[in-house]
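Work Package 3 (structural annotation) set out to generate three-dimensional models for the target panel prioritized at the project kickoff. During this period the team completed the workflow that converts sequence records into discrete structure tokens, so that structures can be stored uniformly alongside our sequence database. As a representative example, we reproduce one entry of 466 residues exactly as it appears in the project archive.
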Amino acid sequence: MRRVNRRSFLGMAAATTGGFLGLRDAVAANLLGFEDAARGYGDLVEDPSGILDLPAGFSYRTISRWGEEMDDGLLVPHEHDGMAAFDGGPGRTILVRNHEIGVDADLGWGAFGPNLERLGLVDRAKFFDPGSGDRPVLGGTTTIVYDQKSGTVEKHFLSLAGTGRNCAGGPTPWKSWITCEEWTQKADVACAKDHGWCFEVPATDQVGLAEPRPLRGLGRFNHEAIAVAPDGRCVYLTEDRNDGLLYRFVPDHPGRLAERGRLQALVVRGRPSADLRNWIDPATEVPTAITGRSLPVEWIDLDRPESPDDDLRFRGFDAGAARFARGEGMWTGRDEILFACTSGGVARIGQIWKYRPSPVEGLEGERDAPGTIELSIEATEGGVIENADNLTIAPWGDVFVCEDGPPGNGLVRVTPKGEVDRFALNRRNGGELAGACFSPDGNTLFVNIQHQGITVAIDGPWKSPT
């Protein structure tokens, strides 16, 4: 078993639990817009550089920008997306960042130059998919080693190559990032291999590419995010489909995800093939899932997890698995796993679910002490929760939600008391922010401006509970 830093992971989990309690209270109080929002850090100050408005006292540094040359001689790819921060030693943070680039993207979006003039810097064997023709698949991950004291980047390099549409993922307790392909492209004239996998990228300061080995046991489907139990015994996975499932991978050896294990799907006990999307006509139908009501569950094994026909969700549902609407971000709480469903709910604008594992999760005896699932939040109108598929939890419990809706997106903060305020505004083009995460010490918030290909580090007078 790999070394699991359970203490630090449990600290993050406790903050997650507190943060979601505040988010739930904000929804219950109908603080979904900003007319009644708390002032929080105060009004936003217009950024003279036209990139990111922040409250007075806060500042940002642009630490990475699409097209810049990195330490390995390659260029920063475009479409920055999911990201996590890891302890890199005293005063240092290691960021591992996704790039959601598909096979049909402009060559200039990749790391190898607009004419692939830098492609020779990378060993072809280090690509998961070098492509069927003369161009590789351009997605993957990059790693940044950031010195918080000086506010400078120490190292910057490509850390995974040849994957596609790397959207979200999740950190592990053993200091790695699981990056997920939100893409089930089959091998064809452009791609040499099938896609739809998860890959593991170590959070290291050593320049170089991770072994591009797909974690086949975690299944082939339209992946979004993962969450790992603090003890490493189980990995939970969401599927970004309107008819997706909630998956669990139980490795034979915790922490060694590339080895054997069981891929499973969640079933509501006594209610096979339950449709938990709540896509109903409220005038004539009763919701399947009721907010605050816990449902006992069990898990069924899925055969053929490599799913060449991308049919895991259909086979699982037919076998009794519950159906969810566009599973997105996942977070490990103190005693629960929380995940968002972007188009779930009667209004189809968002749900957040809470799964409470069994005391003997994934082990013999689980059937006698089952885990439970509960609809924690369901949005009934637009606002904060409508786009809660990409968010982070500060070490003191504040939730920072990345908006991804109409123009005018930014970051929204929700305190553990349920108070809501706007924390940042994308002044450049109003587009989506993504990959928000705090440094392990809580002093710096990192976030991506996705369609500009920019990563910023935000510092300031953070408030924590007294």
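Residues 6-459 form a domain with the Neuraminidase fold (CATH 2.120.10.30).
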